[in-house]
Design a protein that fits this description.
The chain is about 45% helix and about 20% strand. The longest helix is centred in the first third of the chain and has 25 residues. Helix 7 links the parallel strand 8 and strand 9. It is α/β, with parallel strands linked by helices.
């Protein structure tokens, strides 16, 4: 008697993982370019095929069932293997030049391993990576200088591009920092038009807090060195806070900073197969790095 077909359709698994990683059916639909009803139908197909529920629906929250927790681990592995198989079989002789623009801090923290693996798998592809401020990346992108860019913006939902990361920001400083009570907040920031600088100043102004620029540098290493020396407070994504820095939001009673969004843009029109593969590789790699919550909002 033949075995029944396995219900592990790759598209269904990708949707399942996207729901967990993005926190809701709605955001997963936006990420995947699908309607929310299509996402719901895909999960129903997956649950019907497994004859098991993957989510417990309770009010406005979705909680993974024990079966959903088990499937999540295997789903990530199957998606990873699928991407690797496609890369090895379909595009083994990939060639060409791919021009990528990205913020420096994001590149050093999240992309170095991704780019290294891509370069190793596709030695005939020449990667040209440039790190710059968002405004400069967008300007050069509009002039045709890049095939792909990653840039920071205010979270906007489905307004163009592919959202690949969401940064939760915090105020950080060295434990050596000595801030005068009631005095202006000494800030260590990149020059305008840096997104974090804009966030910091806007938040402090809205809260009626005095501030002063203590140190400015376009280099992430320069900013971190100044903070480590105790010269002032800076803004960093929570996952990028070094071990020798601490959050000072509560200690200095600083206002909450809204999240930023990292978005991937592809050049308009047809991009090369090499650029298309690098784009999908970056998105898949970053999705795997998101820590999967067990509870997500509807």
């Amino acid at each position: 008697m033949p075995s029944p077909p396995l219900p592990f359709d790759i598209d269904l698994l990708r949707t399942f993982v996207a729901i967990v990683d993005n926190g809701s059916f709605t955001r997963a639909a936006r990420r995947l370019g699908l309607t929310q009803s299509t996402v719901s139908l895909q999960i129903k197909r997956l649950e019907d095929g497994l004859t098991r529920r993957l989510f417990d629906r309770d009010g406005r929250e979705l909680k993974l069932t024990p079966e959903g927790e088990v499937l999540l681990t295997y789903a990530r592995q199957m998606l990873k293997l699928g991407t690797e198989a496609l890369s090895r079989i379909v595009t083994p002789e990939l060639t060409g030049l791919v021009r990528l623009g990205t913020p420096e801090d994001f590149a050093t923290t999240h992309l170095s391993e991704v780019l290294a693996c891509f370069a190793s798998s596709h030695p005939q592809v020449a990667l040209q990576v440039n790190c710059d401020f968002t405004v400069n990346l967008l300007d050069d992108f509009s002039k045709g200088s890049y095939d792909l860019i990653l840039f920071k913006r205010e979270p906007q939902g489905p307004s163009g591009g592919t959202g690949v990361w969401r940064e939760v920001l915090d105020w950080v400083a060295s434990p050596r920092l000595v801030a005068q009570s009631g005095g202006p907040i000494p800030l260590v920031l990149a020059p305008a038009p840096d997104v974090y600088r804009k966030r910091a100043l806007s938040a402090l102004d809205a809260a009626g807090r005095d501030w002063r620029i203590a140190y400015t540098s376009p280099s992430l290493a320069g900013l971190q060195a100044a903070v480590q020396a105790g010269l002032g407070v800076t803004v960093l994504p929570t996952e990028m806070i070094p071990a020798d820095m601490v959050s000072v939001s509560a200690r200095l009673q600083l206002p909450k900073l809204p999240d930023t969004e990292i978005v991937l843009y592809r050049a308009p029109g047809h991009v090369s197969p090499a650029a298309e593969l690098l784009s999908s590789t970056i998105v898949a790699a970053l999705e795997r790095r998101v820590v999967a919550p067990t509870t997500v909002a509807l």
